[in-house]
Automatic annotation (TrEMBL), chains A, B:
Alphabetized PROSITE patterns for the sequence: P_GLUCOSE_ISOMERASE_1, P_GLUCOSE_ISOMERASE_3, SIS
UniProt name for this protein: Probable glucose-6-phosphate isomerase
UniProt similarity note: Belongs to the GPI family.
Enzyme Commission numbers on file: 5.3.1.9
Pathway listed: Carbohydrate degradation; glycolysis; D-glyceraldehyde 3-phosphate and glycerone phosphate from D-glucose: step 2/4; Carbohydrate biosynthesis; gluconeogenesis
Source species of the chain: Haloplanus vescus
An annotated Gene Ontology molecular function: carbohydrate derivative binding
InterPro entries: G6P_Isomerase, Phosphoglucose_isomerase_CS, SIS_dom, SIS_dom_sf, SIS_PGI_1, SIS_PGI_2
HAMAP family recorded: G6P_isomerase
Annotated catalytic residues: E269 (proton donor), H290, K401
SUPFAM superfamilies for the chain: SIS domain
Record-annotated SIS domain positions: 62-209
Gene Ontology CC annotation, any one: cytosol
Length: 428, 428
């Protein structure tokens, strides 16, 4: 991963090279804490060890019995789904990958009707084995399989914790089952048994992915000027402190749309605490130049824009044309056009003093994606250290979970009472 | 459309009922300006007349010759694509709808390879007829059709301005061609010849859509307490002034994901000017409860969350289960679970003093979507009046367009020189 901070400096909010130099001492300290956390495999820090600790053979063995499925259906939510979606979207492969990460009846019904369930492998992912959305969807999927005359026990793979519902279910029905890794929060689990099985089923190059991640891990050092991941994390932190409350993540590659969504979870859930934390905004280049760029360039000066691209793209030439005023496009390639738009947008933001960071990988392939995901995880952990937040917890989501459970009659939770006390000012 | 401002009051940032009462005088003035602009069909305001001015018969006639295509491919970018995508995602229908709104060679190639071009209708949309991304993609699509032995002139529909490349092309090859409506910026064109043709090809209820929009138009009045659209626009404006620089648009319906993206363009490009403008963030309930909610609840107090849902959903029961601790889910429906999550999240945000607004429609159907899109457009126009920005222009996107064109050898543009002067601070 290459991180270019040139355009992050001297914009508005203003970050200077001198401020980065001063911050570097704190990066060195943070790096030591991170290294110690990794050495002790402490909660969260253990995620940065995954390239070395994940058992790729176990993943391959768990999926070996499903020969060449047409479709893989991931049933999970949040970190249990986004990593897998990111990998298959970026790396393509031999299967159609669908995700059930919501409980919208309009969607679940339509999706199940459209699938050939006999050719589908279902991957159910829940650490606790009790996530309401995931288990509800799984119950619906299981019934749909039974109704279609498909033996669901032959088509289901489970990733879950050591105990709980899903574990018992796997044991009772002899389902292939993988362990969620210890000490790895869901949003840091893309390079683990949570997401790799789908990539393996799709025929992705798992070793390449882990090699890329390992290469990025090897670049972590006590200076932000020597580690692309830390350069990114430190610059984001420093810019937020100076007023860049928004971080627009804008890859210039369609196959990285899910990456931007994965990043948004990583950033929001890890860093949104104690009244700090950048708001991640998912964007897509060049498309969103015609949507968000007006705001980034001319709106409030509270933004950092992160521009991501591969250095190499496939070659698709634009045909020659005699259309008025368009002859300049003929002989150019789509990739050349997209890269020109990338560089023009970057310059356009810089000319308007909007800080922006260029992040590049060589190609959108297993190695590049391994670098990118690991790099962003390490950037996030560093940011959390510098901001002194509890990067690996998500206490604020629990309140709503208890309220929902109370509403559904799943126990006595005072939070549910607050729902009935909603203030109303209805305009209709 | 129903707008409930109850939870927008007395949070942080703090907006009071009294402040809304005071603002209502300005809403009355703004409504008069809007009404005058509509009466004169002034640029931009004309968009709010579309339910009455669009020629639905002309749309139907233009698509009549394409009998039952399997697939429709929209080639356009920004407002030329997002409205159509929003409509077909929300309303479903008989065709698969794909969008080429980017120039990523990896994506364009893969998509074209996967389509049966002989059963595909291509809808090319560009007001000027010279949009680089759109025309490049169209040239590639046209060549792919020719290579596949398909007569592209039999499969292409055009929506464009009165003159320009696409217009001449349509005339030369006798293609069905529709006019982009006068005075309607792309991001306000969902209810026009820009997006309706695809909806018509998909068999959507165009009249229902326009009826819904008309019903919302009829509710515009000189008081925010009588018009759902103005209630939303005025509350967003007042909250931004008080510090809610972020507006997270979070529909609880998978089929409204594109709606959130359409909204993001509407909001960002219309209001992001003169150093003001809320940053729209696209979210999705319940999925993003496991991603963004931590930040909304515990991060900086600079946010408004907009929660959107239909009041009625299809019925999909959750099967009974003897799984430990999950029996409370059995007999419940997926929609019941999703609505419990909606209300729990709403209460959870309120309990944390995070302002939120509930927006509802009766159902995700043509009438409801007509209300919702028109309502959000009117809300945006009102916000623009209150903030005194030039709602219907997008000057900041032009700089980058000129730079890109210069880079590609399409003329002498000084902006292109700035690209070569990029500052570098590369960490690798």
């Amino acid at each position: 991963m290459y991180v270019d901070l040139g355009n992050a400096l001297n914009g508005q909010p203003r970050l200077t090279r001198e401020a980065l130099d001063r911050l570097d001492d704190r990066v060195a300290d943070a790096h030591e804490r991170i290294a110690r956390g990794r050495a002790d495999a402490d909660h969260g820090y253990a995620a940065l060890n995954l390239p070395d600790t994940v058992d790729a053979d176990a993943v391959r063995a768990a999926v070996a019995d499903f020969d060449d499925p047409e479709t893989v259906l991931t049933v999970g939510i949040g970190g249990s789904a986004l990593g897998a979606a990111t990998l298959t979207e970026a790396l393509g492969g031999d299967v159609d990958h669908y995700i059930l990460d919501n409980v919208d009846p309009a969607h679940v019904g339509t999706l199940l009707d459209s699938l050939s369930l006999a050719d589908t492998v279902v991957h159910v992912v829940s650490r606790s084995g009790t996530t309401a959305e995931t288990l509800s969807n799984f119950l619906v999927v299981r019934e749909a399989m039974t109704d279609a005359g498909v033996d669901w026990t032959e088509r289901t793979l489970v990733t879950t914790g050591e105990a709980g519902n899903l574990r018992s279910l796997a044991e009772r029905h002899d389902l292939p089952a993988l362990d969620v890794p210890a000490g790895v929060p869901g949003r840091f689990s893309a390079l683990s048994t949570v997401a790799l099985p789908v990539a393996a089923l799709a025929g992705a190059d798992i070793e390449g992915l882990l090699d890329g991640a390992r290469a990025e891990a090897d670049r972590l050092s006590g200076s932000l000027f020597e580690s692309p991941a830390y350069a990114y994390g430190a610059a984001c932190y420093a810019l937020e402190r100076r007023g860049a409350g928004v971080n627009a993540m804008m890859p210039y590659a369609e196959s990285l749309e899910y990456f931007a969504e994965w990043f948004a979870q990583l950033w929001a859930e890890s860093l949104g605490k104690d009244a700090v934390g950048q708001t991640p905004v998912r964007a897509l280049g060049a498309t969103d130049q015609h949507s968000q760029l007006q705001l980034y360039r001319a709106g409030p000066r509270d933004k950092l824009v992160t521009l991501v691209r591969p250095r190499e793209r496939p070659e698709v030439p634009i045909p020659e044309t005699d259309l008025d005023g368009l002859s300049y496009l003929g002989g150019e390639s789509l990739g050349g056009l997209l890269d020109a738009e990338f560089e023009a947008t970057e310059a356009s933001l810089a000319a308007a003093d909007c800080p922006n960071i260029r992040v590049e990988i060589d190609r959108v392939d297993a190695h590049g994606i391994g670098e990118l995901l690991y790099g962003m995880e390490a950037a996030c952990v560093l940011y959390g250290e510098l901001a002194n937040v509890s990067t690996f917890t998500q206490p604020a989501v629990e309140w709503g979970k208890r309220a929902a459970r109370g509403l559904l009659g799943g126990g006595d939770f005072p939070e549910a009472d607050a729902v009935g006390e909603k203030r109303e000012l209805l305009v209709e």
